[in-house]
Amino acid sequence: MRVKRREFLNRKIKHIDLEKIENISNLLDAFQNSSFQSRNLGTCSEVFKKMLKDKDVTIFLGLSGALVPAGMKKIICQMINHRLIDVLVSTGANLSHDFYESMGNFHYIGHSNADDEMLCKLNIDRIYDTYADDKSFSKSELFFATFPDILENRDYSTRDFFLELGKRIKSRDSIIRACYENRVPIFCPALNDSAIGIGLTGYYMNGKNKAFTINPIRDNYEIMQIAKMSKSTGAIYIGGGVPKNYIQQIHPMLSVFGSACRGHKYAIQITTDDPKWGGLSGCTFEEAKSWGKIQGKACYATAYVDATIGLPLLVGSVFQNKNRAKRKKKNFVWEYDKLVKIKHE
Questions:
Q1: CA-CA to 272 of 20 to 30 Å: which in 62, 85, 258, 282?
Q2: Does residue 308 belong to any structural domain of this protein?
Q3: Could you list the residue range(s) of the whole structural domain that residue 331 is in?
Q4: Which member of 73, 244, 293, 330 is catalytic?
Q5: What tens digit of pLDDT does each residue of 210-258 get?
Q6: Which residues pair with 232 in a beta bridge?
Q7: How many domains does the chain have?
Q8: Cβ(188)–Cβ(95) under 8 Å?
Q9: What is the C-alpha separation between 82 and 294, in angstroms, rounded?
Q10: Residue 293 is a catalytic residue
């Protein structure tokens, strides 16, 4: 078949006119007719809007990187409170920093070229250009060395564990608390790799009650049931790491146990990772198709941009969209590790 030149030269670049840009939503709409990562971010916004309009989709958010110390916590809370996501899969680090702040602690503006040996002597932790009080951080870790004392003596999935923690957090700005109030399940597949995990190690060392355990395999069973009971699923990946892989593997895991491997219907990724090194964090959605992780005809987009820039723009464009679909809250009804039903409220 002969390809004609006009098939390539049929869509013109439209220069961004700031005099006509009134809000973030307008800006990301304009990005779709520009180039490079601005166009990719604009496409992510368009995919997100389509995802939100689909009444049948269950949306999973994969959260990695030091986003809470970086000042992104309220954006995540707003995504939860405004029903932009249904399930959260996070690194233990983000949840640990969220809990640290829920206890009245803060992160501080610092410098990337600080004297780190001096900071260590002063008990100050550095996350690139951000500081945390190590003494206060240790206190938040030690909270979990006794926290299981008030829980039932049994095994917990991380979803179950964070439900119990969320109901006891008073801060209205906490991600964990927001998930509890909105019945958004939290899964943390690498909880031991975090300050919370360190604190729970203290509980284990004390040998008070070995009946209390965090069962990560139960997590697999529970998150798999959510996808199986949903008519379709969508994924938003902020960064990569374990949260991305964990959400990616849900549909292939279902197929192993005899269910149809449908794959995610929608997918968005904001990342700075490069696919050519072969790591999961940078792998493309095209690659994910080979595993059945997303559908062959899925609606997806990736923007290669710092999450502290891309996330506020992406979520802001949705908030300011006058035609944004108002989603119903999903209420996941559990009996221990069994998902009984998903109620729409």
A1: 85
A2: yes
A3: 40-91+154-189+211-344
A4: 293
A5: 789 999 999 999 999 999 999 999 999 999 999 999 999 999 999 999 8
A6: 57
A7: 1
A8: yes
A9: 25
A10: yes
